[in-house]
Structure formats: C-alpha cells, structure tokens
Amino acid sequence: MRTPPTHLLSFNEQIYNFEICSTDFASSLICIASDKKLILGLARFPEESENDTFEWERLKDIYNESRCHSLAFHPETSLMSVPKTVTFCSAGADFILRIFRTDLQNADTVQALKAHTNYVNDIAWDTEGEFLASVSDDHSCKIWSSESHYENVITFCLSSAGMSVKWHPEEPHKVLVAEKKGVVHLYNVRSQQAIISLEAPRGPLMSADWSLNNCHFITALAYGDVVTWDLLHKPCSPSDVKQVHEDGGRCVRFAPNTEMVTASIGRPDITLKVFTAKSPVPLVEAGLKLYAGLCWHHRLPYVAAAYDRKLGFWKVQFK
User: Which run of H or E residues covers position 40?
Assistant: First the structure.
C-alpha cells in the first residue's frame, strides 16, 4: 500500500530539514532548510482558506552559515503581532546553534551559541521560552537560559549520544532526553536531577517524543520498534512495542491531539508510516527514498515529511 501525499510542495534545492510552527498565532508558518538557506513561508490548507485550495506563500529567505541538522520555533513566534515576531533556532553541522530573529521585513538578527563539540541532533524550547535545550553526539544535553542572553546554564552528561529532547506544557521545569543507547530520561531542570529513566528493549534509539495530548505517554523509535510507555499505569516497562521498520527507524512523532496515533519514518526505502495504537494496519504508508524531517501540523490533521526537493503533506483520517 502506498499513500500519495494530499498536498505537495516542490523546491529548486534539496531540503535537509524543516519545521512547522506550533504556536497558536503562527500555525501556518514553516521553516525549510536547504544547504545554506532557511526559507520561511506560509502553507494554507483547504480547511482554512476561503477558496478551498492549498496555497504556499514564500515569505523570506535567510542565509545560514552551516547546513541545518535541527530546527525549533520559539513559543512566542507570532504573525498577528505588529511588527511580526519570528524567532527560531537552527543547529548547524559546525556544532553551533544559531538563534534567528526576524520581523519578515527588514530586521534580521542572528545569535550564535557555542558549547557543543559534536553534531547537535535535536533542539527544543520550553513552553514559556525560558530555556532552550539541545542534545548532541558529544554525549550532553545543554540548557541555555533566555534570561542570561542564552548562556549555557546547565549541562546534563549522558552515557551516549543525545538523540531527542522535548518539553511539555503540563510539566514545567521537566525535560525529556533520549540517548542513542536506548535510555530515555526525565530531568528536573531546577534540581538538575533525573526523575525517571526508561529503557527500550533494544537499540539503537534514534528518536523519541512526548505526547502533547497526554503527558503520561512517551514514545521512542529504537531499532525498528515504536516503543511506548504509559507512566501512569506501567511506569517502568513499555506498555506497547510495535515493530514498524524492519531495517531500523529514523524518527517518531505523536499526533498532537491524541497519544493513540504515531507517525514514523524508517527503512527499508525510508518509509513514512502512521499507525493507531491498537491496529497493525497503517493509516498512511509512503516510500520516500530520502529523509529530511517529520512533523505534524499543530491544529489540522496533516503529517508532513520532507524528501529530496519535496515537502509532502498527508491528511490523516483519525478514527
């Protein structure tokens, strides 16, 4: 079964990463990273446009010194404010984090954060925009404080590469950190202590996520298995292990409005699959051949994946 994308964008250059903004006042905003360029644009879906069509509006191109490995929007990003305020972070192949600020007109600034000594695999802001977290192949999770002009205020030492880092709006001051060897930690940023550690049955772990809809649910893509934990009912052992990608996985994401649906990308053929928790039959299955990011739309039932020079959007029919 192969599911064609519902909507498709094509670009002149190869895409290396992308991110859909999840803030309420900029949920149509997308940042797309090509080699040394960051493209900001608006995707308008038929569900929210007056003429029932899918539209793409390219707003601004920003030069980026180093190829992007990860992207994250600041939670106060807004297209409704005057002037518009768009703030996002790009983790570069040169191990440097760059915070870009733009009003989409003239004023752009960039701030470089240097502390990592190897590739940065994931970055995330907390809900209030107080902290930026980053995880790296240098076996560390670093916390940067906006109050101190993004000084590196905390470093959690890991026993393997950091692959994913997540915050949750209902769990302030807690950060989820996933390690390549198969361990997922929850840290308290205030006490700088690990609260809980979870272990996947087998590794390597390539990606993890924390359900926005239910803070008790954590998922990871370890080897080719989507491993899910329900901290409320089975705090230590996985509540579900589903083999999804027989030759190994790359990325997993919960749907924002339910902990019962996950999207993941893995091998063979770099395939996108969307599953409900209880069914072995995927809602979506699409061979991509190349991988350049996976993201859900914050409000609409679309999952997006980038591959080569394309950005595809699949509408998911939730049961």
Answer: strand 37-44
Q: pLDDT tens digits for 199-246?
A: 999 989 999 999 999 999 999 999 999 999 999 987 789 999 999 999
57 pairs with which residues across the strands?
42
Report residue 227 as tokens. Answer: 């491993």
Beta-carbon contacts of 265 under 8 Å, excluding residues fewer than 6 positions away, are: 245, 249, 250, 251, 271, 272, 273, 288, 291, 294, 305
Q: 20: which residues sit within 8 A by CB, 6+ positions away?
A: 27, 29, 30, 43, 295, 296, 297, 298, 304
Q: 94 in the Ramachandran plot: left (φ > 0), alpha (ψ -120 to 50) or beta?
A: alpha
Per-residue pLDDT tens over the stretch 273-312: 999 988 889 999 999 989 999 999 999 999 999 999 999 9
Contacts 24+ apart (CB under 8 A), 40-48: 40/86, 40/102, 40/104, 42/79, 43/7, 43/9, 43/313, 45/7, 45/297, 45/300, 45/302, 45/313, 47/300, 48/300
- Please give the Cα distance from 15 to 307 (Å, whole number): 7
Architecture in CATH for domain 7-315 = 7 Propeller (2.130)
Residue 233: what pLDDT?
84
Structure tokens belonging to residue 220 = 């990871």
Q: Which residues contact 258 (CB under 8 A, 6 or more apart)?
A: 213, 318
Contact 272, 234 (CB under 8 A): no
